[in-house]
Design a protein that fits this description.
By secondary structure, the chain is α+β, with helices and mostly antiparallel strands. The chain is built from 14 helices and 23 strands. The chain binds uridine-diphosphate-2(N-acetylglucosaminyl) butyric acid.
Length: about 425
């Protein structure tokens, strides 16, 4: 089992190109199934979740290969419609393949997806939407068996009870080649949804309204292959900004999706950091000690403050001057990182969905274990701020979302080794 050894207390300083986005690459890779031709995806991050998606595609009979952040997927010879349980359990996004396989073949067999333990993560909205689109869904011995009643999915009017990112993606993937028109009300507005729609449009799909809460899709008989560049990863961007801010450093983040990171930047600015943006660059300079954030930090669907950036911001605030208050509204178990931060000397009280973070003068290094992706990243942020050495285990969680995190940190002058 690999670990990260971090010697904290160094100011991070330098220029970093932001990696490609995990959470749009995954549904886009699923979307390649609908084309039946070759798709070339540039700026695709090389992450363990992306390799899981590639194993799913290859298992279905598609051909997927990687080199230098470019994924080439040819789905012409796809000949399977079932994803084995072992592959389903590797990540949450395995469920997104359901909509794409149904869109291509009218049938598929999956099971409950895996992914970070962030509390219960049901798929009821996904299933109910598929049923509305004419799919018969049965559960049998842990398998979810789906079949289009008339051989092909049809369009439907779907109102989501909550703007679920995954359910919105699944509906879009199933709808782009379905018969007729699909309308999604209360759809998720996350930038990753727009990236997925941008890719599908490049393949010939007819989609309007992505980025808003009503998406309209007119089903097309056939899509075609394309070459597409994946957007930058706003959550990795927030993580590196939090890291640099908490060490009192300075960074130019290039190839950054400035507008998409804005909800995070507007909160980070309250800590006293000076942040400016120019084209696709973000420049951040941090003072010696951050100030606590005075407004309650409420995680919300986009364009609210992203739940995926809650843990990394908390790490930047544990040794700020004053008290910051978090309210986690998306997942019911997303404070698992706090026990590691407390072990490092943080003063955090968790009361249900609220976390009260009283800034302490300094953190000390400790042996800690990552328990989920963003929680693990927050431990990396705190380890870089702490005095002394930290050993972070469980880093397979971090590798699911950050491309060689230790190389990025070393490029900025931090001391982080993988052993
Ligand atoms: N939910 C249901 N029923 C459903 C679907 C969702 O109750 O059928 C609930 C969830 O349990 C959760 C809330 O709705 O409480 C939001 O879930 P959503 O479906 O929006 O999230 P997701 O699609 O499972 C994606 C990202 C997450 C990110 C969330 C919210 C991917 C692969 N994952 O998850 O990213 O936190 O949206 O923005 O895109 C991460 O990258 O670390 C990560 C967890």
């Amino acid at each position: 089992m690999q670990k990260l050894i971090v010697n904290g207390g160094k100011r991070l300083r330098g220029e970093l190109k932001l990696q490609g986005c995990k959470n749009s690459s995954l549904p886009i890779m699923a979307g390649t199934i609908l084309c039946g031709e070759e798709c070339v995806l540039d700026n695709c991050p090389e992450l363990t979740d992306i390799y899981s998606a590639s194993r799913i595609l290859n298992g279905l009979g598609c051909k997927c290969r990687f080199s230098d952040n470019r994924a080439v997927v040819n789905s012409a010879d796809m000949n399977m419609t079932e994803i084995p349980e072992k592959l389903m359990r590797e990540m949450r996004s395995s469920i997104i393949f359901m909509g794409a396989i149904l869109g291509r073949t009218g049938e598929c067999t999956v099971s409950m997806p895996g992914g970070c333990e962030l509390g219960s993560r049901p798929i009821d909205m996904h299933i109910s939407a598929m049923r509305k689109m004419g799919i018969d869904v049965k559960e049998s011995y842990g398998k979810i068996i789906c079949r289009a009643v008339s051989g092909k999915a049809h369009g439907a009017k779907i109102s989501l009870p909550f703007p679920s990112v995954g359910a919105t993606e699944n509906i879009i993937l199933c709808a782009v080649t379905a018969d007729g028109e699909t309308i999604i009300n209360n759809s998720a507005r996350e930038p990753e949804i727009c990236d997925l729609c941008g890719f599908l449009r490049a393949c010939g799909a007819d989609i309007h309204g992505d980025g808003e809460s009503r998406i309209v899709i007119k089903g097309k008989n056939k899509l075609h292959g394309c070459e597409y560049r994946i957007m930058p990863d706003r959550i990795a961007g927030a993580t590196y900004l939090a890291m640099v801010a908490s060490t009192g450093g300075e960074i130019i983040l290039t190839d950054a999706c400035v507008a998409e990171i804005e909800p995070f930047i507007s909160v980070l600015e309250q800590t006293g950091c000076s942040i400016s943006t120019y084209d696709d660059r973000i420049y951040l300079r941090s003072g010696s000690r951050l100030k606590a954030v005075r407004d309650r930090i409420r995680t919300m669907p986009h364009p609210g403050f992203p739940t995926d950036a809650q843990a990394v911001l908390m790490s930047a605030l544990v040794n700020a001057d004053g008290t910051s208050i978090f309210e986690e509204n998306i997942f019911d178990c997303r404070y698992r990182h706090t026990s590691a931060l407390i072990k490092m000397g943080a003063d955090i009280q968790v009361l249900g969905k609220i976390a009260i973070v009283k800034g302490v003068p300094e953190l000390h290094g400790a042996n800690i274990e990552a328990t989920d992706l963003r929680g693990g990243a927050s431990m990396a942020v705190s380890a870089l701020t702490a005095e002394g050495t930290s050993e972070i285990s469980g880093i397979s969680h971090i590798d699911r979302g950050y491309e060689k995190i230790e190389n990025a940190v070393r490029l900025l002058g931090g001391d982080m080794q993988r052993v």
